[in-house]
Amino acid sequence: MKFTLYFALFALAAVSSPVALASRAARSSHRRLARAAKAPAAASFAADPSINVTGIYGAAVASNTHTLASYPTTPERKAYTNIYGDWQNFANVSAFHFIADMDVDCDGPKANCKGNRDGQTATSFGALDATQVPYFVLPERFTIQYKSILKDNALGAIICGSKMLYGIYGDQDADSPQVIGEASILIGQTCFPGGTIDGGNGHPQNDVAYIVFGSQVPTGIEKNSIDLHALKALGDGQMKLLQKALGL
Ligand SMILES: *[C@@H]1O[C@H](CO)[C@@H](O)[C@H](O)[C@H]1NC(C)=O
Ligand SMILES: *[C@@H]1O[C@H](CO)[C@@H](O)[C@H](O)[C@H]1NC(C)=O
């Protein structure tokens, strides 16, 4: 049986008739198409490939001297995360950062998304559609305490796995206790594709970096929507300045 199969394959390869060649070419082009369909194109709000995502993530982990505030990542208060201001005073760029988990926010016009128990039709500065707008959420108390370094809808960069995505500070968490580490379902599902993320299921590991450029607000933010090209342009510009300031 085995021998026969090997022989048949050998015969096919040896003959290499035009028909066999054409059908092999068709098969390989079909495989190429299947591969292309499987690997999704980078999101339009992902960082430029020239950004050293690994290097910036490493710098975020290592820059932990100047603590601005501390919040739990879950209502059970099992783990706390510090927000750091080590990067506030570079010459040409200013950011604060923290590393946390990622809860999923599903507010806005599609607040009834799967698994979402506490969706609200409005977000803090509008009614951003969580399925269309990459935004992240900050504890309300922090946003009040640090109002002087944080504008509404300010730019942020989120590092999840090997990806860096841009988003805006579009919502506040006012739960009791106020927790840290939350992003719109669009960010959640782009960070962690594969169907595990929905309105009730986030990413529980505390390994996502959030970098917030508090004074920078992209143009093109409407009540429900955002101009993703403007977001990415501002994000890449600020990130290149930060990368330079960090010596990467
Ligand atoms: C990114 O940064 C890391 C850490 O500084 C460095 O080792 C690596 O060479 C950098 N990668 C690129 C492509 O510059
Ligand atoms: C800051 O930006 C100015 C103007 O673009 C530039 O001349 C200067 O070298 C920059 N400084 C640093 C530390 O990158």
What do you see in this structure?
The protein is α+β, with helices and mostly antiparallel strands. 31% of the residues lie in helices and 23% in strands. It is built from 6 helices and 8 strands, in the order αααββββαβββαβα. It has helices at residues 2-15, 18-38, 53-62, 140-145, 185-191, 228-245, and strands at residues 67-72, 80-84, 96-105, 135-139, 155-160, 163-173, 182-184, 203-213. It has a 6-stranded mixed beta barrel. A two-stranded antiparallel sheet has the order 1-2. Strand 5 (155-160) and strand 6 form a beta hairpin. The longest helix has 21 residues, at 18-38. It is globular and about 45 Å long. The chain binds 2-acetamido-2-deoxy-beta-D-glucopyranose (2 copies).
Provide a compact summary of the structure.
31% of the residues lie in helices and 23% in strands. The chain has helices at 2-15, 18-38, 53-62, 140-145, 185-191, 228-245, and strands spanning 67-72, 80-84, 96-105, 135-139, 155-160, 163-173, 182-184, 203-213.
Structural features:
two-stranded antiparallel ribbon; binds 2-acetamido-2-deoxy-beta-D-glucopyranose; alpha+beta; 8 strands; disordered N terminus; 248 residues; 31% helix
Helix percentage: 25-40%
The number of E-state strands comes to: 8
Shape: globular
Q: Which stretches are low in confidence, meaning pLDDT under 50 for 5 or more residues running?
A: 1-39
Task: Give the topology string: H per helix, E per strand.
Answer: HHHEEEEHEEEHEH
Strand order of the largest sheet: 3-7-4-6-5-8
The radius of gyration is 23 Å
**Broad structural category:** alpha+beta
Mean pLDDT: 87
Bound molecules: 2-acetamido-2-deoxy-beta-D-glucopyranose
Biggest sheet details: 6 strands, mixed, barrel
Number of helices: 6
| Euclidean distance between termini CA atoms | 59 Å
Task: Indicate the proportion of strand residues.
Answer: 15-25%
